[in-house]
Amino acid sequence: MVSGAGDIKLTKDGNVLLHEMQIQHPTAAMIAKASTAQDDITGDGTTSTVLLIGELLKQAELYVSEGVHPRLITEGFDIANAKTLELLESFKVAPKIDRALLVDVARTSLRTKLNERLADHITECVVDAVLAIRKDAATVPDLHMIEIQEMQHESDMDTTLIRGLVLDHGARHPDMPKNVKDAYILTCNVSLEYEKTEVSAGLYYKTAAERERLLDAEREFIMRRVQKIVDLKKKVCDEADKGDGKKYGFVVINQKGIDPPSLDVLAQNGILALRRAKRRNMERLQLAVGGEAVNSVDDLTPNVLGYAGLVYEHVLGEDKYTFVEECRNPKSVTLLLKGPNKHTITQIKDALHDGIRAVFNTLQDKAVVPGAGAFEIAAHCMLMKQMDTVKGRAKLGVKAYADALLVIPKTLAINAGFDAQETIVKLVEERIASGGKVPVGLDITSGEPTNPVGIWDNVVVKRNSLSSCCVIACNLLHVDEVMRAGMTSLKAQQ
């Protein structure tokens, strides 16, 4: 895609395409909104939704052009959609949700957007990231606890999972340690710099000596806070050093500012301090290193401190990154995206979103659906068999819906370089021959029917896609006329 500014974007992600495209036609805009909403809710199924809505309208047009009323077709669509959703509940598989299954699900999603070698590498990172932030088997993980950090450096295969946090800034003092091992970490939201009063207040002095005393008092107020942090560091590190002979470090990560004199004092005491950490990272830090974030330095105790085995600064050009690694039991992790250029990193980032949501959906659904077009073939055969039970001309709508479902395996066949009609005939014949007992999907390497073991789709993605496709297609079929609203329509008449 080429933007108005001349930026070029290469993508296979339907959601990215629909967000970037400038769509003018009202029908197309409505379909695009439904598809992007699908991605927002489930994280996948954007392209499938667009294809299915388009095919439903295409099949309906064949009957409308012959004089069949749209109401009869939409009635058939509703009947067919209800039967298809019923089939989905019986067709889904509920195996043991282990790491191997989650890897298969993530791989199925990522291979549609990235090259095979890179997709397989990132699959492991995605699954391990989601499992790391999962507190227990009963709770659903909070995906916001996965930080996605970009670094334009090395190759895309160097993208990795950091079991800790990567902050996109470094220490602000040249004398601070750049590499701290066995670090106690204080996360705080305390101002360590001079701030003006909230109300308009003025201090008056008569002599230069009085002015100096006022400045010293302001400085002393901040230095008392800094000294309390230094005292805690000495207490904790000295006790730990005496206990096992190891040398421990101390790191301060503050959400508010730290002025140069305070940084100087912290550096003299061997403390690595980071200021103005992003708000979103404060909660992640607590989950990664443990401890508690404090809003005051009064009554500081060792209990509020977290721990990391290694904290170090990495300089890349003019940018600094601080790595917090080797945490004891991190419940927040970082996916570090690397690539030689911005385009590669953006492509990986778009795919990661879908991969993470695919794993999340599997944990939430506790079930999966066989992929490779197997469900669509099964639904088509089921609807064609049950079409005789539908009375009246509504059965035309059921047939149109059944034929429209075949657009998914047809598209898979075309993308793999095979004849669409020939492939569909093979798949349907194999499904009927198996008596509906075995899922029948498309093997894209040979073009032959296969049992799609290891290729899984999400239940929630299929369910939402089928529901929204039916609703949007029915609404569009009920439209009699498109009218331009607002002042522009009045101006056009004049």
From TrEMBL:
InterPro entries given in the database record: Chap_CCT_zeta (IPR012722), Chaperone_TCP-1 (IPR017998), Chaperonin_TCP-1_CS (IPR002194), Cpn60/GroEL/TCP-1 (IPR002423), GroEL-like_apical_dom_sf (IPR027409), GROEL-like_equatorial_sf (IPR027413), TCP-1-like_intermed_sf (IPR027410)
Gene3D superfamilies: GroEL, GroEL-like equatorial domain, TCP-1-like chaperonin intermediate domain
Subcellular location: Cytoplasm
Any Pfam family hit: Cpn60_TCP1
Highest taxon, organism lineage: Eukaryota
GO cellular component: cytoplasm
The entry's keywords: ATP-binding, Chaperone, Cytoplasm, Nucleotide-binding
Main localization of the protein described in the UniProt heading: cytoplasm
Stated name of the protein: T-complex protein 1 subunit zeta
Protein species of origin: Toxocara canis (Canine roundworm)
Lineage: Eukaryota, Metazoa, Ecdysozoa, Nematoda, Chromadorea
